[in-house]
C-alpha cells in the first residue's frame, strides 16, 4: 500500500537532511542519498531512499523522500511503498509509520501540510 505526504518547511533542504539524520534508526535504514547545491542560485535538492523490514506484516517497505527549494519554499515529498502483503496489499500501518518517523524529525519546522494520504 502506498502512502504519500507533502509539506512545506522553514529550513533549506540540506539543513532538513541534517535534522532527519539526527534519528539514528532512520540513518541506519538509508540506502541512497544524493544532495545537490547550485550556490549561485541558492537552490538545493536532496533525494533520500530508506528501506525497513516490518515484522507486523512480514514485508520490506521503502520510503523515498525529495526535498527541494526550486520554487522558493522548501517542499518535502515522502512516498512509502512496498509495505503491504497479500492479494489486497494490506500494510497494517507500516507505510504511515515509516513516513511518521521522518515527519517527527521535521515537526517543529513544518509550515504547511500540502497533501497527505
What does this structure look like?
- The chain has a six-stranded antiparallel β-sheet with strand order 2-3-4-5-1-6.
- It is of the alpha+beta class and 117 residues long.
- Residues 86-92 have low confidence and may be disordered.
- It is globular.
- 26% of the residues are buried.
- It contains three helices and six strands.
- The protein is 22% helix and 49% strand.
- The chain has helices spanning 13-20, 24-28, 94-106, and strands spanning 3-9, 30-38, 43-54, 59-71, 73-81, 110-116.
- The chain has one domain: 2-Layer Sandwich (TBP-like), CATH 3.30.2030.
- A hairpin with a 4-residue loop joins strand 3 and strand 4 (59-71).
Mean pLDDT: 87
CATH class reads Alpha Beta
The major pleated sheet works out as: 6 strands, antiparallel
For the largest sheet, list the strands in their spatial order. 2-3-4-5-1-6
* CATH fold descriptor: TBP-like
What is the radius of gyration computed over CA atoms, rounded to a whole number of angstroms? Answer: 14 Å
Query: Helical amount among residues, as a percent range?
Result: 10-25%
Structural class: alpha+beta
Amino acid at each position: 500500500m502506498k502512502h504519500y505526504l507533502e509539506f512545506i518547511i522553514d529550513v533549506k533542504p540540506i539543513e532538513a537532511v541534517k535534522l532527519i539524520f539526527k534519528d539514528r534508526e532512520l540513518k541506519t535504514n538509508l540506502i541512497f542519498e544524493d544532495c545537490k547545491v547550485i550556490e549561485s542560485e541558492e537552490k538545493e535538492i536532496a533525494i533520500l531512499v530508506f528501506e525497513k523490514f516490518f515484522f507486523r506484516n512480514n514485508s520490506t517497505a521503502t520510503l523515498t523522500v525529495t526535498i527541494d527549494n526550486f520554487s522558493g519554499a522548501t517542499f518535502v515529498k515522502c512516498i512509502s511503498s512496498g509495505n503491504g502483503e497479500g492479494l489486497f496489499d494490506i500494510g497494517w500501518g507500516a507505510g504511515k509509520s515509516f513516513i511518521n518517523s521522518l515527519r517527527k524529525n521535521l515537526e517543529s519546522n513544518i509550515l504547511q501540510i500540502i497533501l497527505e494520504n
